[in-house]
Amino acid sequence: MPRKKNEKSFKEFECTVKDIFLGEVKSKNIFPLLILHLISNETQYGNKLISKIKEMSGNIMTVNPNTIYPLLKRMEELNLVRGKWDKPKRPYKKYYYLTKEGFKKYNDIKEAQKPWMEKLEKAVKILRKEIYS
Hints:
The protein has helices at 17-27, 30-41, 46-56, 65-77, 100-132; strands at residues 44-45, 81-85, 94-98. With 133 residues, it is mainly alpha-helical. The protein has a single domain, classed as Orthogonal Bundle (Arc Repressor Mutant, subunit A), CATH 1.10.10. Strands 1-3-2 form a 3-stranded antiparallel sheet. Helix 2 crosses helix 5 and helix 3 packs across helix 4. The longest helix has 33 residues, at 100-132. The model has no long low-confidence stretch (mean pLDDT 82).
């Protein structure tokens, strides 16, 4: 039976956790904070950051090179990170580390985003309790 023009199927209203989470993550500086955090712990190269983010988030956050490399380049331009090529080894990798300004920005963003992260955590707990209790 064909649907009427104004009827919407359930499928049209579906969204994934990725849709919700990544939209908020991108709009709340959480992604740059995560990059700075990972680089603050040890030098990292782009593909390693991609795999660490995927692993840490339980595959909820997937990042592609077209997202991470422009961000790393922008962070270099802002003197938040510096990249150093590892040329003796192949394939060549550019390892990133935080600058003094990068550590300051990392701590500033971390403090600024803490209330939002706490609200997000609280909201997830409330939703889980509401739905599954």
